[in-house]
Amino acid sequence: MGNRDWRPFIYGGLASIVAEFGTFPIDTTKTRLQIQGQKIDPRHVELRYTGMVDCFVKTSKQEGVKALYCGIWPAVLRQATYGTIKFGTYYSMKKAFAARRADGGTREHLATNTFCAAFAGGLSSAIANPTDVLKVRMQIGDEKRNIVRCFIDIYRIEGVAGLWRGVAPTSQRAALIAAVELPVYDACKRRLTAPLGDRPLNHFVSSLLASLGSAVASTPLDVVRTRLMNQRNVRDPSIQIYKGTVDCFVQTVRSEGARALYKGFIPTWLRMGPWNIIFFLTYEQLKALY
């Protein structure tokens, strides 16, 4: 591979895709729970679901099991870009900074790891934002067409800006998740290496702990970015519900209460836990193979 090591990028993308397939139905229930109950959006005023399980069952019965995977292809496309850039950039930057330190990178540096993770998360999420918009629109159930027609429709009606709808909270959320998740995983893995060794059980526990912290930190931004991405007809200001990230945050709290910012928290964590477990187990096995 020459002087540049591409393995973190390749392994990160492959492991992200595997994890996405394994947890996507949970993500669909999370998205639908976050959208419902918007008192200022007539399309989503009704509280259709009482919780994650109810959403899962009703969606399966009313729309078929296939509906739980509606939006999977833009999600896979997103992970092929987002996951590849995020994890590849993080581990590459981390390695580069470690090589320049006086200790030669023999010790972990929390501040450096946090910076690298936040930068990698924000950058990769901004680049992959159009695929996230497609995924959200298809998960809500408004877009029944294939990914290409959905893309063309958004571009035709809303322009290029429509494909980057919600990019600010999406990037902020991704940076926040990465800044918590990746350093926590690395720290837990390092601490647990002595009692558990560098084995799957260590990777399992470390990824589970990392996902809890990132779910608590990121859910409010996730609710905001989901609602912004689902907002349509952005060329007509007279029917624009949210003006931006801050406005969406304020209006959500004002009309639904602060608890609304944690709508979908359980499926968010239940998805992040298995997603991280599948990802890191796959990533570590790929590292061991080559």
Radius of gyration: 19 Å
The number of helical elements comes to 10
User: Biggest sheet, open or closed, and with what strands and sense?
Assistant: none
The chain-level mean pLDDT equals 85
| Number of beta strands | 0
> Span between N and C termini?
12 Å
Brief digest:
This protein is mostly helical.
Give a verbal description of the structure:
By secondary structure, this protein is an all-alpha fold. It is built from ten helices and no strands. Its main location: mitochondrion. It is found in: Mitochondrion inner membrane. This is Mitochondrial uncoupling protein Bmcp. Keywords: Membrane, Mitochondrion, Mitochondrion inner membrane, Repeat, Transmembrane, Transmembrane helix, Transport.
List the helices and strands and how they pair.
Elements: H1 7-35, H2 52-63, H3 72-100, H4 110-127, H5 129-140, H6 147-163, H7 167-196, H8 200-230, H9 245-256, H10 265-289
Please describe the structure with a list of short key phrases separated by commas or semicolons.
single chain, 290 residues, mainly alpha, transmembrane, mitochondrion inner membrane, Mito_Metabolite_Transporter, Mitochondrial uncoupling protein Bmcp, MCP_dom_sf
